[in-house]
Specification:
mainly alpha, single chain
């Protein structure tokens, strides 16, 4: 009976809630999937902004600070050796502003925020448990051996040694929520 209730709650999630829910999963899959999620969320935020004329999201103080930083990055890219490449990288930084605004929009409107938080918590605990298994036995749950340096673990990330950064970064919103 409880199983059906959980699946029913997942089926009631809106599109932005699903994007928030799958963020930790996409970050384990790799940077391509994270960039895909950033692009999709940015497009959704722009759609929401234009469709509902919600321009008040752009009038936040931290948005102004980010835009000043964005202009600074664009100006400094003109002084780079390969300024065309630097300018391309500078313009791609706008996706982080749009993703931040998407999160701001979603958190204000998420009806199932507790489900998102519980799913993130479960996933972070799973990654931590997988890493502990890899530390004690040399192999993780999926049978992958720890690559490279014996004091560095990869957990479910394969050859990338970023499990500590992942857990610390993903734990910040969870700890602030539970606090």
């Amino acid at each position: 009976m409880k199983h059906n209730n959980i699946f029913k709650r997942f089926s009631l999630l809106s599109f932005p809630e699903w994007l928030l829910l799958v963020f930790p999963f996409f970050s384990v899959l790799g940077p391509t999937y994270v960039n895909l999620l950033l692009i999709i969320s940015s497009i959704y935020f722009i759609y929401f902004l234009v469709r509902f004329k919600a321009y008040n999201y752009l009038r936040l103080n931290w948005v102004y600070l980010y835009l000043i930083f964005f202009l600074y990055v664009i100006c400094t890219s003109f002084f780079a050796t390969n300024y065309i490449h630097a300018l391309q990288n500078s313009f791609s930084q706008i996706r982080f502003l749009l993703f931040s605004l998407f999160i701001y929009l979603c958190v204000a409107n998420v009806k199932n925020f507790d489900l998102v938080i519980k799913t993130w918590s479960f996933f972070i605990l799973f990654v931590a448990f997988d890493t502990l298994i890899q530390f004690y036995f040399g192999y993780d749950i999926f049978g992958k051996e720890s690559p490279g340096h014996p004091n560095r673990l990869s957990g479910p990330f394969g050859k990338e040694l970023i499990v500590g950064a992942f857990i610390s970064i993903m734990s910040v919103p969870l700890l602030s929520y539970f606090y």
